[in-house]
Amino acid sequence: MNRLLNETSPYLLQHAENPVDWYPWGEEAFKKAKAEDKPVLLSVGYSTCHWCHVMAHESFEDLKVAEVLNREYVCVKVDKEERPDIDSIYMNVLTALTGSGGWPMTIIMDAAGNPFFAGTYFPKTGRYGIPGFIDLLEAVTEKWKTQKNDLIHSAQRITSHINARNEQGKDGVSSENHGGSLCENAVEYFKSAYDSKYGGFGGAPKFPSPHNLLFLMSYYKTAKDKDCLAMVEKTLEQMAKGGIFDHIGFGFSRYSTDDQWLVPHFEKMLYDNALLITAYTSAYEVTKNPLYKNVAEKIILYVKREMTHPDGGFYSAQDADSDGVEGKYYVFTPNEIVAALGEKEGNAFNEAYDITKRGNFEGKSIPNRINAPVFDAGFLDAKNKLYEYRKTRAALHKDDKILTAWNALMIPALSCASVVFGESGYLHMAEKAVDFIEKNLSENKSLLASWRDGRRSESGFLDDYAFYIYAQLKMYQATIDDRYLDRAKTLAQTAIADYFDNEDGGFFLSPKGGEELISRPKESYDGAMPSGNSVMAMNLILLHFLTGGREWEHALNKQIRFMNAQAGGVLGGHSFYLLSLLQKDFPGRKIIAVPADPSEKESVRLQLSGKGWAVILDRETDEYKRKDGKTTFYICENHVCRPPVNELD
């Protein structure tokens, strides 16, 4: 056992029995590197990462590799999901030096944390043009011994370059009206990248990126651009038909390795499924197509039975590998299906879900409906039998840590589904998750990042605040319960105080006064998940919209200026931010209610729950008075207010 034995991260615990003398990130490792004049090898990954497993088995479990690492390096392991700040900093290094990123991430740096080498996966011995890990380690060791000063100077230059990149674009674009052209340009980009045959944007690999679809749906509603809705509908239908969707146990895998959504990278992430629930629910709300409701409800069922802690929080991910083989858990042969279902039903299922002798993935078949006219072929009882049969296989590893940020994406997905589908059970799931975070991941006005087995991290990051504030606001929208709005206000004040750059705008990923690293990035790119900065823009817009309070204007104006500058350079990479701009320019309906008597506030709340954004006043104001002494409703929509009425109808 090494020093990872007492960590809580499932990823670090996977490496606790390696012969490599791993350290967790911390002062001890860097003091040792300085004292012994050794470089630091940093390895970053996560517990459900297939290629992280491959590199672990090939190299980190190998005695020869371990001998080199232990003799010449100080080795540090980091779970990217527990330490997004470290991951972000060194991923910026990796992409700057190599042009691309990914995990496992391999960084070699000096004892001050300045990197001079960056890469991803390396096999133990070289092949296919990829250098072998041992060869790499020995080459760096030789250079460290003979040209150490050159490496250190190189590392310092790289750190300076990364920090200079962080400063770029901070002056921004001053005009708040710039958002209109940003949205229009982004729509044109998505149209040019759209795959009209299989949906989605660009070629393989294809990621769901549901916030792109949410932006296009919102643009359709405001600009009446039917092409936007058509792109969304085609993409949602083809993803549901593909193998990226688990037709047996439900839920979506992380991405498709091909352009038709057939062969997924089989790991399932909580954040993907949360955002996809929101996308399919929103599509149903717009179109009333039952396909979208069907898919959303199946994802929720998957989350409920496989990803939910007994106390209400949600686990992080499920692995791609079973018995060390990627996808083995999910694929079938025709004979297996017939044996589980019987000949008649088995043959019918095989035909319906493309289970063939030839197979569509390494000699076996991923169930899919890509070439079928409709998504759902029925077979509910058959799927239940196959689901139980599949559970007899070697179990998938589950990353059971609970992350505030990822849970905070599932909460609004469930609250939205509860309103749109009229299903109170979904709201109950969301409420239990909120209670879990408040009990285990919250301290007064602060949030923590992760929890597992009763142990929790020390501090939260911007995404924890941004996503959880948004979750509170969406819970408020669903329930009109003031405690959610009040909590959102409190946490937004903390986020502004601890993370906001008052001079140049934008929120830093880590708080002021936190651990001093080589860089303090502001992330704005909406990749697999929306960025914390994009979501904070939405939060500030909604808080200003709901409260009318001037307290949010300073941060909001600076945030828009900052984000406009960021979004202008990457047309398809800031869709959640553009969604927030549409919310600002087309805020939709808000109902202000003045109860006839304070005792009627709860009945008014129940009347307004599920009807959108609303505010219930405790008393009359100069602007909002009772009409005829009765409960009165003021209905405003897209900057226009109607005369007050006593009946919502």
Structure description:
The protein has 23 helices and 21 strands. The strands form seven sheets. The chain has a five-stranded mixed sheet, sandwiched between helices. Helix 11 packs antiparallel against helix 12 (290-306) and helix 20 (532-547) packs parallel to helix 22. It is globular, with a radius of gyration of 26 Å. The termini are far apart. The relative contact order is 0.09.
- Shape type: globular
SS-based structural class?
alpha+beta
- The proportion of strand residues reads 5-15%
Query: Can you count the beta strands?
Result: 21
Q: State the separation between the terminal residues, measured CA to CA.
A: 68 Å
Let me know the average pLDDT. Answer: 94
How many strands, what sense, and barrel or not for the largest sheet? 5 strands, mixed
Instruction: Give me the Rg, rounded.
Output: 26 Å
Low-confidence stretches: 172-177
Helix percent reads 40-55%
